[in-house]
Amino acid sequence: MQKRIEKPFDWSRLRAFLATAQTGSLSAAARSLGLTQPTLGRQVSALEEELGLTLFERSGRALQLTDAGQDLLADAKAMGDAANRIALIAEGRAHSLEGVVRVTASDMSSTYVLPDILVRLRSMAPRLRVDVIAANDIRDILAREADIAIRHVRPTEPDLIARLIADAPAHLYASRDYLNARGTPVSADYLSTHDFVSMGDDERLIAALQEWGISIDAAQFTTSSANGSTAWALARKGFGIVPMSDDIARDFPDMVRLLEGAADITFPVWLVTHRDLHTSRRIRLVFDLLADMLKERMV
Fold it and tell me: What is the pLDDT of residues 230-243, one digit of tens each?
């Protein structure tokens, strides 16, 4: 029978448990937390005593989670994430997180992704102003046209800091009206009889689709727009098939995902800032918050 906890929970013990579970050893966990191994071991033992559970068993030099430890792990991760988020909010408010941060992203991300994220960011830092630069070209952070960029290619400039957020899933989509009129393709081979909406650069889109095992030619493009939001609107009106990230498409019930499993697409999402800007507490906090929120959205 588990012991009832009568006193406030010790978060340092939770951090010790999580680090040990993730690294598989007390020594590695201690290094990751900047503690000595005996100190971390005492925290884990104290948590086991407090809960009345054995959380780890030794397997050679490694530690393995017991069934009880496995049961606790998911909830412990959620509690740890919540604690980290609270700490970020507190740090932001304590250091007067205010001023202007310029974030650049594609027009699609600026329209359909950033607003939800910025609503949450505003609740954490109400005095911070975020200027969104919606642009499909790669804005030059080196020239300080933006402070933070969301990109789909990894930058090569040595003065930039880039973090890979996720390999975001995407698929081909078409409107229900289009599919009712033209039929739903049952395999990639049937795509040769269908229309497509181009996003402004036919050759680039054809090459990208080819990498994903989808062969089409320029004659299949019925319309085009270099503006992603416009291309998406054209596809919703039934002009043809278009590739789209799943996290955006899921908000549009009129659009149907095609060939799942046969035409699965992924594309990288990078968050980028200048090395000098990352030393700014304001930029660093916004950068880290955006990274967490984007990853949460894309999973």
Answer: 999 999 999 999 99
For the segment(s) 168-267, the CATH number from 3.40.50.2000, 3.40.190.10, 3.10.450.50, 2.40.100.20 is 3.40.190.10
Question: Where do the structural domains in the chain lie, given as residue ranges?
Answer: 11-94, 99-165+269-298, 168-267
CATH level 3 topology of 11-94:
Arc Repressor Mutant, subunit A (1.10.10)
Predicted TM-score (pTM) of the model is 0.65
d(CA 16, CA 95): 28
The whole-chain average pLDDT of the chain stands at 85
Q: Which residue has the tokens 């930029």?
A: 283
